[in-house]
Amino acid sequence: MTTSRRPPPPAPRLLRILRDPVAAPCLVATVLSGFGSSALWLVSGIWVKDLTGSNTLAALALLAMWTPTLAGPVLGTLADRLPRKPLLIHTNLTLAALLLTLFAVDAPGDVWLLFTVLVLYRTAGVVQDAAEAALMARGIDKTLLGDFNGLRMTANEGMKLLAPLAGAGLYAAYGGPSVALLDALTFVLAALAYARVRTEPAAETGATAQSRPGDWRTRTTEGVSYLRHHPTLRPVILAAGATMFLTGAGSALLYAVIESLGHSPTYAGPLYVLQGLGSVTVGLASGPLLRRLGERRFAAYGIALTGVATALRAVPSDAVFLTSGVAMGVGLPCALIAGLTAVQRETPNELLGRTAATANTLMFAPTALGLAVGAALVSRVDHRTLLPVLGLGLCLTAGSLRRRGSGGTVPGCGPGGG
After folding, report:
1. Looking at the domain 216-408, which fold is it?
2. Rounded distance between C-alpha atoms, residue 273 and residue 164, angstroms
């Protein structure tokens, strides 16, 4: 009598990602470069302030790292025309070399070099984000995309909790060039991690013999057009952009809220920690939630939670204020994770770089506009009035997205799936 053996149960998805020859090295590279980038992000403004004494120039240092995001549709075209793995390796090594030029910055007249490096730094980052999104979409099982994007968010948020402290300590002890050196080292290590990625040739580039010919402008607008006309992607990406605009406006009110509670501005520190912990948590849970809810519902519930958290900040209570930080940390990443996952699942390989970069522009660029609007309103309108209005706007955004449909779930893994 023979007995049939049952096939072994599939490995947990987290373990599958950590064993995957594409996902695992990319995740390591994200952790490494994210640590260095978070440290430099904080230190750049402090560095400029110390050199010049100007608050305006210090703020412009942060703006310099935002500006290249606006060129996402153009920069994303590179990720479709060049081999993606070599592109990721070479941009990391180039950034490492570029950062070493900051050793020449030691006087107010050298600030222009720091600004130039920051702009080029973020420009390369936009290209890298597009190339990695495209590489992952074609390099790993589609059912793992939500899990990977969630883990990537967890890694980024985790680095934001640790790296600023390390960067600030290093800057206080040895100055800005030491932080630049740390960041350069993380980019060299990230390049080594990307060198270990093993992909099929089809995942390497979007340029194929069947790709439509055209000049740079034509190829760039193809990604924009694809997003604009896609019935699944358009509402998710636009809702994420609206969410970032409204939360950006709410962020500009943060210190008014802290002042009304009777605290100094440093009280924002615990809030950022709690918000980061919330983001780490939802990043770990996003894969299963995306498979159960689909991109639209996952994004809609996260946006609604963010709206409630924003409105609750108008309540004059420390406990409510800190709780809102956790809730916002959980809710806000949902729209971003859902948007990127939907783009990766729904976009043809030859358009992935351009479409991913365009989506990132539409999702992240509104943050700067929201900050500007919030800064203009905070001195004219009481924050206890503005915050509920912003919260209502977020809830309406969630409701609009939810009414348009539940969105697609990962094949075979939705409700009732395996």
Report:
1. Growth Hormone; Chain: A; (1.20.1250)
2. 11
* Ordered DSSP codes for 332-360: HHHHHHHHHHHHHHHS-GGGHHHHHHHHH
Question: What is the spatial distance between Cα 307 and Cα 390, in angstroms, rounded to a whole number?
Answer: 7
What one-letter code names the amino acid at 357? A
3-state secondary structure of 262: coil
409 phi and psi angles, rounded to 5 deg: -105, 165
Q: What is the C-alpha separation between 318 and 225, in angstroms, rounded?
A: 46
Is pLDDT at 269 greater than 80 in this prediction? no
Task: Please report where in the chains the tokens 């590179």 appear, as a residue.
Answer: 78
Tokens for 194, please give them: 């990307």
Q: Do domains 13-206 and 216-408 have the same CATH topology?
A: yes
> Which residues contact residue 28 at a Cβ distance below 8 angstroms, ignoring those fewer than 6 apart?
190, 193
Length of the chain in residues, anyone?
418
CATH fold label, 13-206: Growth Hormone; Chain: A; (1.20.1250)
State yes or no: pLDDT of 345 exceeds 70. Answer: yes
State how far the Cα of 384 lies from the Cα of 354, in Å rounded to an integer.
Answer: 41
pLDDT in tens, 308-327: 999 999 999 999 999 999 99
The Cα 375–Cα 378 span in angstroms is 5
Distance CA 310, CA 393 (A): 10
Query: pLDDT tens, 366-415?
Result: 988 888 888 888 888 898 999 999 999 999 999 998 776 544 443 333 33
Domain coordinates in residue numbering, the chain: 13-206, 216-408
pLDDT at 201: 60
Q: What does the pLDDT read at residue 1? A: 44
Phi/psi for 346 (5° steps) reads -105, -5
Q: How far is Cα 226 from Cα 246, in angstroms, rounded to an integer?
A: 25
Burial label, 67 (beta-carbon count in 10 A; 0-12, 13-18, 19+): middle
From CA 31, how far away is CA 26, in angstroms rounded?
A: 9
Question: Is the pLDDT reported for residue 98 higher than 90?
Answer: yes
Residues 193-214 have pLDDT tens digits of: 999 988 766 555 555 434 455 5
Q: pTM of the entire structure? A: 0.79
| Closest-CA residue to 286 (of 401, 156, 197) | 156
